[in-house]
Amino acid sequence: MTITFVGGGNMASAIIGGLLKQNHAATSLRVVEIDETARARLTRQYAVETFERLDAAAADSDCIVLAIKPQNMREAATALRPHVKQQLIISIAAGIRGGDIARWLGGYARLVRAMPNTPALVGAGCTGIYAMPGASAEDAARAEVILGAVGTTLRVGREEQLDAVTAVSGSGPAYVFYY
């Protein structure tokens, strides 16, 4: 399975590192990252192919993980729109509903929303996963494999349940460390 990450920040780096530890080939991982310094770091650290912008070559993969800040999602999805064919799209952006992403992608429905938490940065995360109605059971299972590279996963039955996952698993570790 080839995977393109749109965004090469901390969470994407953690997932890439986790996949590599599970013997996923670096040659099947790609990253679209606008920052030149970050692209160089990703290439040096993980030996993955990097792209400066989202184009047909970058999007030519089995799965695209949208690992960008929520405020950049509309712009990224709009740029991705002409390049989406049959790929599984996974979003790890907090608070952006799948329906919005689908609309920005021109009605594309093969989407999985996921909410990893910061312990994923050290391989001990817990990720809530919701497969949108246009995604298959196989798509959800693929998302679990990808996000399982940085910890455990939990499928939820309704998209709204990701809000609770965000609140508890996102803030919970901080409360434990604070205590």
Describe, in plain words, how this protein is organized in 3D.
With 179 residues, the protein is an alpha/beta fold. The protein has a single domain, classed as 3-Layer(aba) Sandwich (Rossmann fold), CATH 3.40.50.720. The protein is built from 7 helices and 8 strands. The chain has an 8-stranded mixed sheet with strand order 3-2-1-4-5-6-7-8, with helices on both faces. The chain starts with a strand and ends with a helix. The relative contact order is 0.14.
Entry summary:
With about 180 residues, this protein is α/β, with parallel strands linked by helices. It has helices spanning about 10-20, 35-45, 55-60, 75-80, 100-105, 135-145, 160-179, and strands at about 5, 30, 50, 65, 90, 110-115, 125-130, 150-155.
